[in-house]
Amino acid sequence: MLHVKTRKRDLTDRLHAFGMSISYDHVLRLSSDMANAVCEHFKETDTVCPPNLKRNVYTTAAVDNIDQNKSSTTAITSFHGTSISLIQHPNEDGEGVTNAIIKRRNLSPAKAIAPLPSSYTNIFPLSSQKRGGLKVPSTSTQCSLKGDEEAVLMATRKD
What we know:
With 159 residues, this protein is of the alpha+beta class.
């Protein structure tokens, strides 16, 4: 908790010297181990999704771009990103299946987070052709839409 609030190495190590805290290095190892366990879970399940989302619950997404200082001519004073919010709408209390708890492996001596797979960071561009419509490149990940097929058809129909 101390590290979360202050991010101060000196303070954490001083309290550790008095026996009131774990060392700053131990905090960094725990933090990197937790991050690596989450990344490993994403690789094993072949999905990137918050582990606290429940399966079999109607879920909607809100996606928006974030542009700060769009008129800037340098990347130093501007920011462009994407915000993704997932909202679950259970019909009743306790609906859905809780995902497996992500378990930490043995504490590693390393304080580094493993790199993400290239499929997480390299996104192929979409291209539009005049007569062919939008062409989406194939991926190795299989996706399926389950649930209200009528809503899916309405969302994908061409008007």
